[in-house]
Request: fold
Amino acid sequence: MAQQNEAFKQLVSHCKEYGFIYQSSEIYDGLAAVYDYAPYGVLLKNNLKDYWWKSMVQLHENIVGIDAAILMHPKTWKASGHVDAFNDPLIDNKDSKKRYRVDHLIEGYCEKIEAKIDKDIAKARKKYGDAFDEAQFRATNGRIVDRQKRIDEVMARLTKVMGDGDMEGMKAMIEDLEIKDPETGSANWTDPRQFNLMFSTQLGNIAGEESKLYLRPETAQGIFVNFLNVQKTTRQKIPFGIAQIGKAFRNEIVARQFIFRMREFEQMEMQFFVPPGKEMEWYAYWKETRLKWHKALGHPAEKLRFHDHDNLAHYANAAVDIEFKFPFGFRELEGIHSRTDFDLTEHQKLSGRKLQYFDAELGESYVPYVVETSIGCDRMFLATMSHALQQEIVPDADGKDSTRMVLKLPPPIAPVKCAVLPLLKNKEALTTKARAIFNDLRFAFDCQYDEKDAIGRRYRRQDAIGTPYCVTVDFDTLEDDTVTLRDRDTLQQERIPISKIEEIVSERIDMRTLFE
Ligand code: GAP
Reply:
């Protein structure tokens, strides 16, 4: 656990130091749980969005995209259930005046037990070496079995009280488990209460409740209210999907773990409209399809897992998370929900407009059922960065061992695809040649020119931002118009003609390599 926290701290500081993510309004000491994407961060994030959009929209004839407004008619949120049911249970500590989510406090209790299990496993692994079988150890070691049983009991009880919205039951759990304020150790708690997560704002020219608007807490509703517009204007036949990437806002009370839980974040959502009764087939299809998408980006199977929801949201008849192993443990990365006909039916009721589809094959009209895939762009960013950032020992320019931080991002999503480096800064013939190469390549892909510092340090800088290829212009280049092309991961240097750089690099950074 300590090692994991160290890795996470290193990731957070790498994001700042190398220009991926800044705290929002940092000069005013920041705004909690709000972050800005820095120059390399925005390139990486755009590439992740592009990978999602291409795979969902460009490669599916029956999925089209939209970009709906963040502000929507306030009745939208009444119909969707967000005004009445989009709540988190909160509890205040009377001594410290700190506010917490009840479920987070109870999960924290279980995480402490989990940490003890991890410690025992690490000790046993050290003792038994290669012969160690973790699954067998977990199943047979008495202390671990008891601790796991305890976690399972507590989580089952939490699932029940959360599902029932049982505030007294939540308070009883806090008392029974003797949970204390993590920062001060005080057990002087208020009663828990529900807190709505939507941010509200005012419409300019109307007074009172009528003027109350919300910043959307999910992008999905922009898709639901446009369902018939899109179906008619694109002449799609069911089953078909509508995809969207956009900002969402939630007034998260306890914002934790860097960009994992933010107040302003971005979602990539797709609503797939299907005939009633066919939703479970499509739910299974999208579960597998989305898992494959993550694996195609190079995330290994052991860092991904499904987690079925114990508590279904008010709109769902089945729901699963794709969890990713972040440095702080397995957490939700993407949700796949079978949302029934709940949203369209509720919008129909409140708007008085029909949201039905005439199915020519069946000869009948119906409100379609919906299977949704919903992934947070920022969580995808965090997952990708955490998997890619590695510390390695490699030979330096003199052949001695040196440590490097390298971001092993898949080349198609790397922020900078290729850096052009003259071997020496003060040799005009080299810099002029390198600049000419750079000025040509930058039309083809994101490129960087760098002449400052020794060549070894420049390679390290490019490694740290994940640049997959470095082109070095040396004295031979002036003779024969060839350069060296250095591969970030293998450190191999190949000699290639200048005229071939664009073709070779373009082929290796093509997003097609991921889809294949
Ligand atoms: N339309 C369904 C929906 O919004 P959700 O599980 O609440 O479902 C979907 O959110 C995804 O959005 C999550 O899997 C997560 O990746 C991302 N997400 C949710 N809340 C977030 C937050 N506060 N900060 C960053 N990402 C968040």
User: Anything to note?
Assistant: Residues 218, 220, 250, 252, 261-262, 265, 267, 269, 332-335, 372, 374-376, 378-379 surround glycyl-adenosine-5'-phosphate (CB under 6 Å). The mean pLDDT is 94.
